[in-house]
Amino acid sequence: MTPTPPPPPDAPGEKPARLRVGVIGAGRVGPALAASLELAGHHPVAISAVSAASRARAETLLPDAEITDPATVLARADLVLLTVPDDVLPGLVDGLATTGAFRPGQLLVHTSGRYGAAVLAPAVRAGALPLALHPAMTFTGTAVDVQRLAGCAFGVTAPEELRPAAEALVVEMGGEPEWIAEEARPLYHAALALGANHLVTLVAQARELLEKAGVQAPERVLGPLLGAALDNALRSGDAALTGPVARGDAGTVRAHIEQLRTHAPGAVAGYLAMARATADRALAAGLLKPELAEDLLDVLADGARR
């Protein structure tokens, strides 16, 4: 028999349900989400934290929550946030299910981008109610994360009967639900990692190169440029492509590769890969002229062979 889900926190016509919130995993995400739920009127009561850094984070963001073990968190909370690394999540759920830690009617939320609700199947067999709520945001582990949740998209996967509860929780945290099918979760997460995680690497490399070129304040140079590039890309897609690759300036690209080999050899492979991807997209969009593309692609191929 399927347990009856609790009313969503802000269900129309219902008195808002105030939930006791627990967190298993005091990394950067869990305490911030629990703190946002506290602002909405819920009550963080317990959090598991092991390292000194995670304990300090828990004490700062959730001062009224008891720092304890995962079993006690589950015993005390109506809503439990499983905010552990993706690769840890399946084993954690299996282990806790084996010990009988989950309760019927308990809302169980994980924040993995990779997994949907199916990873919580062992808990569901014990009567828990599964929700996958992944905030599409980068976290710092500080109070600023709570503010950044305003308007943040959440990748949501949940059984049909739990969709109102999932949507209400996301809205209470200040976010906007984006429904993701169970089978599409890995692709969804890959897209975010490609855009956000790799962006940090690219920006860090660009900053280091500017410093080597003698620029005293690389962030002042990059800030307006990258802000405009991101805005243009989100508005116009491939039509926003600019620069020597999109123009077919093979000589300039050759000079870039030579300089990178001298000053930052570790950045060469990434430059070549991104330049080739940019050339392919520029060609497909009609921005890069075919007669210029041949020389450009020869330069990139030569750079890859060295």
How would you sum up this structure, described in words?
- The chain is an alpha/beta fold.
- The chain has two domains: 20-180, Rossmann fold (3-Layer(aba) Sandwich); 187-305, Orthogonal Bundle (N-(1-d-carboxylethyl)-l-norvaline Dehydrogenase, domain 2), CATH 1.10.1040.
- Helices cover 50% and strands 12% of the residues.
- It has 13 helices and eight strands.
- The protein has an eight-stranded mixed β-sheet, with helices on both faces.
- Helix 11 packs parallel to helix 13 and helix 12 (268-284) runs antiparallel to helix 13.
- The longest helix has 28 residues, at 185-212.
- The radius of gyration is 24 Å and the shape is elongated.
Strand and helix map with partners:
Elements: E1 20-24, H1 30-39, E2 43-48, H2 52-61, E3 66-68, H3 70-76, E4 79-82, H4 89-98, E5 107-110, H5 121-124, E6 129-135, H6 144-148, E7 153-157, H7 163-172, E8 176-179, H8 185-212, H9 218-236, H10 244-247, H11 250-263, H12 268-284, H13 290-305
Parallel strand pairs: 1-2, 1-4, 2-3, 4-5, 5-6, 7-8
Antiparallel strand pairs: 6-7
Helix pairs in contact: 11-13, 12-13
Give the low-confidence spans: 1-16
| Terminal CA distance | 64 Å
Q: What share of the residues does DSSP label as strand, in percent? A: 5-15%
CATH superfamily of the largest domain: NAD(P)-binding Rossmann-like Domain
What key phrases describe this protein's structure?
13 helices; 8 strands; alpha/beta; 2 domains; 8-stranded mixed beta sheet; 50% helix; elongated; 306 residues
